[in-house]
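Structural prep section.
Before we set up the soaks we want a predicted structure of the protein with 5-amino-5-deoxy-1-O-phosphono-D-mannitol in place, mainly to decide which crystallisation condition to try first. Input record follows.
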Amino acid sequence: DMGGHDTYMHKEIHEQADAVDRVLRGRIDDRFSTVHLGGLNLDAREARQIRRVKILGCGTSYHAGMIGAQMIEELARIPADAEPASEFRYRNAVVDPDTLYIAVSQSGETYDVLAAVQELKRKGARVLGVVNVVGSAIAREADGGVYVHAGPEVCVVSTKCFTNTTVAFALLALHLGRTRDLSVRDGKRIIEGLRKLPEQINEILKQEEEIKELAEAYAEARSMLFIGRVRGYPVAREASLKLKEVSYIHAEAYPASELKHGPLALIEPALPTVAIVPDDDLLEKNRAALEEIKARSGKILAVAHQHQEKADQTVIVPKNEDELDPILMGIPLQLLAYHTAKALGRDIDKPRNLAKSVTVE
Ligand code: M6R
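Run finished without errors. Recording the C-alpha cells verbatim:
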C-alpha cells in the first residue's frame, strides 16, 4: 500500500521524520546525557578498551558507515573508518582483537557483508551489526548491535534506511563517547540536536515543489558532479549513488579539496555540480571551491545552511549540531534524484539491473 504516493521511494522519503522518531524512542537517557542501546552486548570496560573501529557495508549502507565513522571519531575519539565489505573480504585484512568491527546492512542479508562478518568471527573478532531487518542473517551472526528501526523499505533504492542508519550511528557514537571522554555538556548538546531531527526533516520535505523544479531543469544533464568536504563528502557520495540508481544519469562524487588535482578539467556549463556546503569550520574552504567552479562557467546547486552567492541555486537545510549535519543534508538530494527520475520516466522503485538485496557473490 503506497498510501497515496506514486512510488515506494516517494512514500519512504516522506516517512523519514517518523522513522527517525522510532530509532530515538526509548533510548535517550537525559539523566546521564547518553543513550541506552539494549542489544549492544558491550560493557563499559570493553567499550573503553576499543582502540579502533572498522565499519563494513555495501552501497548506501557503506556511505552511512562513512558518516558513522566520522561521528565515532569525533564524539568518541576512537580512530574509525569505513570500507566496502566486498573489498575488505578479499584483501586478507589484518584482524585485530582491539578493533571493534561493525557490519551495516538494511536487509541484513547482503552476501558480501555476511561473509565478512563470518570471516571476522572465525578469526575471533568482535562484530556488531547496525541492521534494519530484525532477525536477519547479519543480525543473528553479529555479537550484538543496534537496530535501525526504519520500518520496511520496499523501494530498491534506499532512502529512509540510510537516514535512520546515520542516526543509529550518532547514538552509538554518543554512547561510546559518554563511556569514554565526551563531556556531559557535549552529550546534552548532541541529544538536543537528535531531538530536533524529525521536525527539521519535515522542514526540508516542505521544499519539495522547488526541488522538483530544479530536478526538471537538471534532468537534461548527461553527467553531474557531487562535491563535499569531510562531513559533506559521504553525503555527496550517497547523493551521487541515488541519482545514478534512479535516473541513470552519470554522476561522480569527489572531495571538494581534490577538484584542483584533476576534475577541474571537466568543468564547463554542461557539467553541473552539486555542492554540500555546511556552516561548519570548512565553510570558507567550500566557498573557495564554488568560486573555482564558477570561474570556469560551471553551474552549481548548493545544499547549504545559508544562501551561497556563488551558486546558481541554493537549497537551504536547517542547521543542527555540526556532527549531526550530514544526517539532514542528503535529504533534499533524495528528492532531487526522485524528481529527476520521474521527469525522465524511469522505473523508480525497480531500477534496471538492480535487486533490493544482493545475496549472491
Ligand atoms: O541491504 P543492504 O543495506 O546490505 O544493501 C546494500 C546495498 O546493496 C544497497 O544499499 C544498495 O546500494 C541500494 N540499491 C542503495 O540504494
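Observations: The chain is about 45% helix and 15% strand.
Flagged for discussion at group meeting.
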